[in-house]
Automatic annotation (TrEMBL):
NCBIfam families linked: PpsR-CrtJ, sensory_box
Protein name, as recorded: Transcriptional regulator PpsR
InterPro entries: Homeodomain-like_sf (IPR009057), HTH_Fis (IPR002197), PAS (IPR000014), PAS-like_dom_sf (IPR035965), Tscrpt_reg_PpsR-CrtJ (IPR011785)
Domain PAS: 157-194, 277-318
GO molecular function list: sequence-specific DNA binding
Organism: Acidiphilium rubrum
Domain of life, source organism: Bacteria
């Protein structure tokens, strides 16, 4: 602390009231304490700050040590002892952190410094509010702990990556995205290239036969542009057999690296070769004018032919991979569920009417036939999708069935015109349409009432009520209901 040079000259006319105002303004809290440690007076910089202390109005006349928290009483006793041992009126250079009980919430931290006054043993304790500093310190501690947790988690992730990288039986390389030089290589890659000690830093293109470098450049360029590409085959120098290479893009900050996985091309198993007839069949399906897709058990596309891509306005088959077929079917959440349920139960579905929606929202009427096949012990679904939007009546409907007979109830409704009010006619027509809609939904869903209710936008209970009303419940169902 550096005091004034000439206080007697400039502060000689300061009386006790002015000194008290100066002390109250200079500190957040100030105490006048006698030689026995009894609080004789208290000053706060603001009334709101005084209200934050618990029972601050009872401090006067009590020992200073009794007004603070239990863990701070020793500090107050030491400050009083240091103050009593000082022969001059210089301030105590060592501030002490003291906590006071608060009316609400946490304790109030105060940093006190004491100054003896005169020769009577009295002293003034100047206090500064440390809550803002304590809050910053707590935030600093929280941030430090968060950083330590993140660092520990990243360290564990890196350790797992290192273990997998080293234990992988397949050769794995990490290439720099700009120079395409090898940054890291696992032990399998070291063995593949003859245990070269200085494999890191070499250009990977130099380890590839010249005729395979074009395929490598195309692979890396496609990965950089689209993020994915099918595996390609290359030949390495000093290796007679072909290698299949897969590439993945790794982003590190603003830079990019490539993760390459090499695997030998397995010799062709003659038992797995398709016969000429099967190969022609696959080629026919790929070129067929009707859409054909293969999905997994969850409805996500595994393969699609060119006609389906044209119907959905997709640019490539990769855009359809992994997408659920429900994305393009007309009634999301209904059609695919109905088809999947029937496929699991019966194994095939024929001529299911719905409509297909392309990427731009255009709808096309289609018929779907589907079948279940097993692939590696897991079921897959094949869907044949035919566009019937431009189908004319003579092409697919026999002449005898081109006109559908009007239901008897509709004939009765036409006879009511002029005899009853329009309101009653509308009610009769509504019931006819409702019954026909329920019949159509049950026919489409193979009498699956849960799916029919979902297709009609009804609850199962509401559908059962309507079935009873129109006499469409069989005796067994009525007994269960």
């Amino acid at each position: 602390m550096k005091a004034f040079k000439s206080p007697a000259k400039w502060l000689a006319d300061v009386d006790a009231d002015a000194a008290g105002m100066l002390i109250a303004a200079a500190a957040d809290i100030a105490l006048i304490v006698d030689r026995k440690g009894i609080v004789r007076d208290v000053a706060f910089q603001s009334a709101s700050f005084a209200n934050e202390f618990d029972q601050s109005e009872t401090w006067i006349g009590r020992p200073w040590a009794d007004t603070v928290t239990v863990e701070s009483r020793t500090k107050v006793t030491e400050m009083l002892h240091d103050m009593a041992g000082k022969a001059d009126d210089r301030p105590n250079p060592l501030g002490r952190h003291v906590n006071y009980p608060a009316r609400e919430g946490k304790d109030v931290p105060i940093l006190f410094s004491t100054i003896p006054v005169g020769h009577s043993g009295r002293a003034i304790a100047f206090g500064r509010d440390l809550r803002a500093l304590a809050s910053l310190q707590q935030r600093l501690v929280d941030v430090q702990q968060s950083l330590e947790r993140d660092y520990s988690r990243l360290r564990h992730v890196e350790t797992r990556y290192r273990i997998l990288f080293q234990m992988s039986a397949e050769p794995v390389l990490v290439l720099d995205g700009q120079s395409q030089k090898i940054v890291e290589a696992n032990p399998a890659a070291q063995r593949l290239f003859g245990d070269r000690d200085k494999l890191a830093g070499l250009a990977f293109a130099g380890l590839v036969e010249p005729e395979s470098r074009g395929a490598l450049e195309q692979l890396l360029g496609s990965i950089r542009a689209a993020g994915r590409m099918d595996d390609v085959r290359i030949r390495l120098t000093d290796h007679d057999s072909e290698m299949r290479i897969s590439a993945f893009l790794l982003r590190q900050g603003e830079g990019q690296n490539y993760l390459l996985r090499l695997s030998p091309v397995s010799p062709v198993d003659p038992h797995n070769l398709l016969s000429d007839s099967k190969a022609k069949l696959l080629k026919l399906i790929e070129s067929a004018p009707d859409g054909f897709v293969v999905t997994g058990n969850d409805g996500r596309l595994l393969a699609a032919n060119a006609a389906f891509l044209d119907m959905t306005q997709l640019g490539s088959e990769e855009q359809a991979h992994g997408q659920t077929l429900d994305r393009w079917l007309g009634r999301p959440g209904v059609d695919l569920n109905v088809l999947s349920a029937n496929l699991r139960q019966h194994g095939s579905v024929r001529l299911y009417p719905t409509f297909l929606r392309d990427e731009f929202g255009t709808q096309t009427e289609v018929e779907i036939s589907a079948v279940t096949v097993m692939n590696g012990g897991k079921p897959c679904f094949g869907f044949a999708i035919r566009n019937i939007g431009r189908r004319t009546a003579p092409e697919f409907i026999p002449p005898a069935t081109t006109t559908r007979a009007v239901p008897r109830s509709l004939e009765q409704i036409s006879e009511l015109i002029g005899r009853v009010s329009l309101k009653e006619i509308v009610r009769e027509a509504t019931e006819v349409i409702e019954r026909l809609s329920i019949e159509a939904a049950l026919k489409i869903t193979g009498d699956n009432r849960a799916s029919a209710a979902e297709m009609l936008g009804l609850s199962r209970q509401s559908l059962y009520v309507k079935l009873r009303r129109y006499g469409m419940m069989d005796a067994e169902a009525l007994g269960v209901a």
